[in-house]
Every structure is written in structure tokens, then in C-alpha cells.
Write a structure and sequence with these properties.
Distance between the termini: 12 Å
Oligomer: single chain
Largest sheet: 6 strands, mixed
Number of strands: 6
């Protein structure tokens, strides 16, 4: 994996879910990284098996029309790989909660503080607007960029080119075109919690050329 450029000054404040899922389209492709345990298999990777997971890994309840790909991005460093593992679980929990339009037990386990509050407000907006998610969301180019005293920062990309909003009542899918805004450069600040890690802060910049090039 090509090294990520240093510096996070351009990262914007946390984005709301409606903004995060706007501007998605159907022309972009997923990344080709390995999938973490719990990620849903896709037709691009028929060999993927969601049942093959680490002992004690959480179970995620996603609708049949919601798919998630998460690159493993293993480093060989035991501590960093544990952080990336729990970051992957946090991303799966995030998508599970979006599909349910409410915080799930998995979401509560892997999200806390301001990050959790921000997304919980988004879930409420989804319920109010009568929408949910559908399609494929891809997370990749994941890297632990900072690790000190039980606090870590994970930088990563998100490809929403095949992720859409869907009317929860009618099932109608809003397929918007793929643009540069379909690619998001994100940062998750994680803190040690018991034997695992939780996301406590989230920041993102939409319209990332670097993430588009890595997709």
C-alpha cells in the first residue's frame, strides 16, 4: 500500500449522514483489499465468506441489499492490527445502524462520545425523513497514523460510488451519479476501552482525489 501523505489540517469537521450519502453514484468500483471478519461478501469477490470470522467477533445484521467491503490493511504490528480490527468492526456497526436508522448494540459498543452523538443524530434524521441505505460502501487505505497512551488515529478512505439512499416505505432508490464527492478522506480517533477500542471522534473531507485514485 502506498504511504499516505502526512498532515491532517485539511480534514473538515464531522459530516452528517445526509451529507455523507449525498452525491453517490453507480460508476465507481470497490477497492480490492482483503475483507475483515463480518464484512458482507459481494459478487466481485465470490470467495469471501462472512461466516469465517475471528472467535468472539461480533455478528452484524445487515439487510440483503446493504453490502460492505473493508480492506484488512494488516501491518504485522499486533497493537496496530488490533486497532484496525476494531475500527473495521466500528465501520460495520456504523452501517448496521444506518440500515436500522437507530443505534444498535454493536454501534454502542464501538462508538462513544461526540462521534456516537453525531451519528445518532443522523440516524434520527433518517427516521424522520423515512430513508435508509442500500448498495455497496467500501472502506480502504486504512492506516494507524498516531498511537500514544491508549489513543489512536486511523486514517482511511470511503468509496460511496455504489452506496445510495432508499425510501424506507416505497423501496425507491435514489441513484445519483458518481463524482469526486463520492470519495471521502476520513479520520477516526479511537480510545482504548477495556479489551477493545472505540471511535470517540470522527472527521472527514469529501471530494478526495487521493481516495479516488486508491479505489
Amino acid at each position: 500500500m502506498r504511504a499516505r501523505r502526512a498532515g491532517t489540517g485539511a480534514v473538515a469537521a464531522a459530516l452528517g449522514a445526509v451529507l455523507l450519502l449525498a452525491g453517490c453514484g453507480d460508476d465507481g468500483g470497490p477497492s480490492s483489499g482483503d475483507k475483515i471478519e463480518g464484512a458482507q461478501p459481494t459478487d466481485q469477490d465470490p470467495s469471501a465468506d462472512a461466516s469465517e470470522k475471528e472467535p468472539g467477533a461480533p455478528e452484524f445484521d445487515l439487510p440483503d441489499d446493504v453490502r460492505v467491503e473493508i480492506a484488512e490493511d494488516a501491518t504485522g504490528d499486533e497493537r496496530k492490527d488490533a486497532i484496525l480490527r476494531d475500527h473495521g468492526y466500528a465501520l460495520m456497526a456504523q452501517q448496521e445502524a444506518y440500515a436500522a436508522t437507530e443505534a444498535t448494540p454493536n454501534f454502542t459498543q464501538y462508538w462513544a462520545g461526540e462521534a456516537a452523538a453525531t451519528f445518532e443524530a443522523d440516524f434520527a434524521e433518517y427516521r424522520k425523513d423515512g430513508v435508509t441505505i442500500t448498495g455497496l460502501d467500501t472502506f480502504y487505505f486504512r492506516e494507524v497514523t498516531s498511537l500514544k497512551d491508549g489513543r489512536a488515529v486511523v486514517a482511511y478512505c470511503e468509496d460511496q460510488s455504489k452506496a445510495y439512499l432508499k425510501n424506507a416505505g416505497t423501496g425507491k432508490v435514489d441513484k445519483t451519479p458518481t463524482t469526486l464527492n463520492s470519495y471521502i478522506d476520513a479520520r477516526a480517533t479511537m480510545e482504548k476501552s477495556g479489551d477493545g477500542w472505540q471511535v470517540v471522534d470522527y472527521q472527514a473531507t469529501r471530494g478526495s482525489k487521493e481516495c479516488r485514485d486508491e479505489a
